[in-house]
């Protein structure tokens, strides 16, 4: 494990050098900054565990840094040092989230004791948070150190405190649902409901009644009144997965619910007030759908003010090892097995693969390897990566149409998975429902594969 990292912000070089040397001699890694601007650059790139900042700096005060740091990561402990200790200032600093306020000159030994105590408290808090998340089934969507995933975390944290809708874009299996749940868990609405609806594959009538609910007798079969998800999610978060598949006839109703905060159950004559935060997600190019007029532009503009794009796994191969380790850990716990690690070759094979099905596919490969392998280390051969990378065998000729190629490829993958559609969908990088749709379009019959 790396040493705890301290960001020390002090414009007096002799004071800074003295403190930095003492902290380093005691096993801490220290980054030094002289100005607010430099401090924020280092904070963003270095992700320190604790910040120690002098109050007056050439381009502002440490309160400016404090508010930015707490917005990015409220659990970073912040210590303010000042030559002019005043009660007012101390109260303001603590109110804005500083953990400690110390009057200069500060004894290096005393500072070290405080830093260590804050680090210890932070560790306990993290452990507690991890345990809470585990209980709530919340996964960390920002695993890894790639710039793309760090940026995503920063953007997502900034969106937590608002109520505007969020649009999550990303390929299938990239973790859009995981991110939506994380946002709920960390937002002001965490104590309220999180309701989730996949808009793909539902008929217009079903989707409408799921979303808005219906009164008794609203349609044939509506034998009792039923509240819709907007009602169930009142004050909480409504997550609409695959919103690009929402029937155009329903889109204006959703827009009205977002803009006017009212909606009507099917068959009802009165409006109901609703307060929800919408998170929508899609793996489709919504902008293009707007241009092609298959998705309403007014709804698109309403839901896309805050957009998060999850990078596909192939754009951040350096994050694969840490993701794999976490997944292995949770699969081992679920199976009641001892922790399992990857051999260096196995890890390299995972890093090299392009992961069309993203984290879902990675998870699936690791889970299968765990089932097939009984020891405490997974070797490259246990992963079955050759099958995924194998060149096409006998199939349509060189001048086949795309449809023929698609058909042959789907058939081949299904044959490999012995007709298991869920697994085939993961390999193909498709949602299961999309694969069923393709099977229908291509006239493939599962029983004959
Ligand atoms: N950060 C993560 N850590 C561990 N596992 C993850 C992570 N993100 C995603 N997964 C795994 O990948 C699977 C797919 O995640 P999720 O359903 O959130 O993806 P998605 O982008 O919403 O997929 P789809 O587009 O098919 O709806 C989940 O079942 C989860 O187990």
From TrEMBL:
Native source organism of the sequence: Mesoterricola silvestris
Name listed for the protein in its UniProt record: Two-component system response regulator
SUPFAM superfamilies (alphabetical): CheY-like, Homeodomain-like, P-loop containing nucleoside triphosphate hydrolases
Gene that this sequence comes from: pilR_2
InterPro entries for this protein: AAA+_ATPase, AAA_lid_NorR, CheY-like_superfamily, Homeodomain-like_sf, HTH_Fis, P-loop_NTPase, Sig_transdc_resp-reg_receiver, Sigma_54_int
UniProt xrefs under PROSITE patterns: RESPONSE_REGULATORY, SIGMA54_INTERACT_1, SIGMA54_INTERACT_3, SIGMA54_INTERACT_4
Molecular function per GO: ATP binding; sequence-specific DNA binding
Location of the Sigma-54 factor interaction domain: 142-371
Positions of the Response regulatory domain: 5-119
Modified residues (4-aspartylphosphate): 54
């Amino acid at each position: 494990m790396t040493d705890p990292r301290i960001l020390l912000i002090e414009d007096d070089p002799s004071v800074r050098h003295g403190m930095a040397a003492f902290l380093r001699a005691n096993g801490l890694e220290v980054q030094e900054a002289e100005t607010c601007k430099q401090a924020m650059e280092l904070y963003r790139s270095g992700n320190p565990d604790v910040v120690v900042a002098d109050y007056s700096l050439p381009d502002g005060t440490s309160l400016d840094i404090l508010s930015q740091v707490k917005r990015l990561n409220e659990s970073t402990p912040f210590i303010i040092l000042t030559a002019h200790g005043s009660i007012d200032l101390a109260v303001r600093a603590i109110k804005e989230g500083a953990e400690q306020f110390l009057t200069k000159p500060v004894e290096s030994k005393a500072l070290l004791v405080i830093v260590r105590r804050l680090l210890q408290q932070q560790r306990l808090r993290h452990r507690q948070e991890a345990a809470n998340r585990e209980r709530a089934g919340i996964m960390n969507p920002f695993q890894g150190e790639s710039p793309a995933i760090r940026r995503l975390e920063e953007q997502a944290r900034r969106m937590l405190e608002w109520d505007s809708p969020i649009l999550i874009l990303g390929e299938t299996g990239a973790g859009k649902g995981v991110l939506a749940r994380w946002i709920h868990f960390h937002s002001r609405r965490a104590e309220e409901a999180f309701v989730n609806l996949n808009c793909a594959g539902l008929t217009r009538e079903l989707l409408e009644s799921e979303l808005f609910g219906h009164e008794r007798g609203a349609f044939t079969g509506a034998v009792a009144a039923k509240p819709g998800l907007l009602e169930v999610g009142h004050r909480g978060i409504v997550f609409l997965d695959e919103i690009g598949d929402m029937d155009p006839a329903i889109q204006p109703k959703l827009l009205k619910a977002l803009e006017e905060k009212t909606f009507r159950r099917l068959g009802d004559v009165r409006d109901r007030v609703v307060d929800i935060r919408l998170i929508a997600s899609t793996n489709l190019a919504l902008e293009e759908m707007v241009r092609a007029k298959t998705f309403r532009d007014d709804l698109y503009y309403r839901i896309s003010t805050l957009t998060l794009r999850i990078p596909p796994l192939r754009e951040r191969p350096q994050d694969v090892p840490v993701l794999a380790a976490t997944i292995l850990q949770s699969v081992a716990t679920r199976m009641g097995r001892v922790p399992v690690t990857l051999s260096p070759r196995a890890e390299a094979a995972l890093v090299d693969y392009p992961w069309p099905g993203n984290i879902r596919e990675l998870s699936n490969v690791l889970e299968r390897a765990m089932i097939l392998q009984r020891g405490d280390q997974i070797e490259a051969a246990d992963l079955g990566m050759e099958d995924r990378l194998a060149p096409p065998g006998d199939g349509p000729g060189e001048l086949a149409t795309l449809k023929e190629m698609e058909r042959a490829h789907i058939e081949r993958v299904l044959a490999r998975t012995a007709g298991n559609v869920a697994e085939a969908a993961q390999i193909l990088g498709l949602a299961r429902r999309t694969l069923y749709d393709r099977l229908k379009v291509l006239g493939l019959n599962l029983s004959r594969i």
